[in-house]
């Protein structure tokens, strides 16, 4: 599992290297330190982190940059990672704009250049921000996810199949988790409240087994239940084949 990232953005190469050096020296063991030399490249990095499902803890962006300013980068960071902390790096002449940005752009803090010594002017501020972020941080689960309804027989059949084959999984009840935007993002084509797809949904990069609760308990014969259970087994076997093959290759 990838460790959370800290992103720093500055168009001046020397300043960017200095920020990366100081951040890596203090936080390199617990975070990935990423650097971007422009606002556009920073937004591309943010989008890549979001696509891969990685976590972002902090963004440190210089205010004065061509094309996209630091506020533009932090605004995009807030949209993609609303729980991540945002810090604006600015010169003394821009302090009024930085103070106003705390209210308008909802940044958490602004830092003045130069920040030497970092032990006094950089690390104490970032320590507090990262401490607050860690308090609400929940590491993403990257294993097998089963989404379904607790009333669905197919859900229980699939869970029993995974458990009997010693396959670890995470169960999520879609009726309870319907308001959660992270769960909705896994299956954007399905209305979690009704269980009906907006349009045909297909698996993406994550292994998400979609289960629809039809609640047709009456009139089911034993043969129909047996055929349904076998179809569930076939779907699970096909989905878990790459995981099972890799497990046996490692064993040998």
What does this structure look like?
- By secondary structure, the protein is α/β, with parallel strands linked by helices.
- It has two domains: 5-135, 3-Layer(aba) Sandwich (Rossmann fold); 144-251, no CATH class.
- 46% of the residues lie in helices and 17% in strands.
- The protein contains nine helices and ten strands.
- The chain has helices at 13-27, 39-52, 70-80, 95-104, 118-121, 123-135, 153-164, 181-186, 222-251; strands at 5-9, 32-36, 56-62, 85-90, 109-112, 144-148, 169-173, 190-191, 196-197, 208-210.
- It has a five-stranded parallel beta sheet with strand order 2-1-3-4-5, with helices on both faces.
- Helix 4 links the parallel strand 4 and strand 5.
- The longest helix is centred in the last third of the chain and has 30 residues, at 222-251.
- It is elongated, with a radius of gyration of 24 Å.
- It starts with a strand and ends with a helix.
Note the topology.
Layout: E1 5-9, H1 13-27, E2 32-36, H2 39-52, E3 56-62, H3 70-80, E4 85-90, H4 95-104, E5 109-112, H5 118-121, H6 123-135, E6 144-148, H7 153-164, E7 169-173, H8 181-186, E8 190-191, E9 196-197, E10 208-210, H9 222-251
Parallel strand pairs: 1-2, 1-3, 3-4, 4-5, 6-7, 6-10
Antiparallel strand pairs: 8-9
Helix pairs in contact: 2-3, 7-9
Q: Any key phrases for this structure?
A:
alpha/beta; Rossmann fold; 2 domains; 5-stranded parallel sheet; 9 helices; elongated
């Amino acid at each position: 599992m990838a460790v959370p990232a800290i992103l720093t953005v500055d168009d001046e190469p020397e300043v960017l290297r200095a920020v990366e050096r100081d951040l890596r020296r203090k936080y390199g063991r617990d975070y990935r330190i990423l650097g971007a030399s422009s606002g556009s490249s920073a937004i591309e990095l943010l989008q890549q982190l979001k696509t891969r499902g990685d976590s972002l803890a902090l963004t440190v962006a210089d205010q004065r940059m061509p094309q996209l300013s630091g506020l533009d980068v932090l605004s995009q960071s807030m949209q993609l990672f609303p729980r991540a902390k945002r810090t604006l790096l600015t010169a003394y002449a821009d302090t009024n704009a930085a103070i106003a940005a705390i209210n308008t752009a909802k940044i958490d803090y602004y830092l003045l250049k130069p920040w030497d010594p970092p032990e006094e002017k950089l690390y104490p501020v970032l320590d507090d921000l990262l401490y607050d972020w860690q308090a609400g941080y929940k590491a993403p689960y990257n294993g097998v996810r089963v989404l379904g309804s607790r009333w669905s027989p197919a859900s229980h059949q699939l869970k029993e199949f995974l458990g009997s084959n010693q396959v670890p999984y995470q169960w999520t009840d879609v009726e309870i988790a319907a308001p959660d935007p992270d769960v909705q993002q896994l299956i954007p084509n399905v209305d979690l409240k009704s269980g009906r797809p907006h349009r045909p949904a297909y698996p993406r990069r994550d292994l998400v087994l979609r289960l629809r609760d039809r609640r047709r308990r009456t009139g089911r014969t034993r043969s129909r239940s047996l055929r349904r259970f076998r179809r569930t087994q076939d779907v699970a076997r096909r989905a878990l084949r790459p995981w099972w093959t890799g497990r046996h290759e490692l064993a040998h």
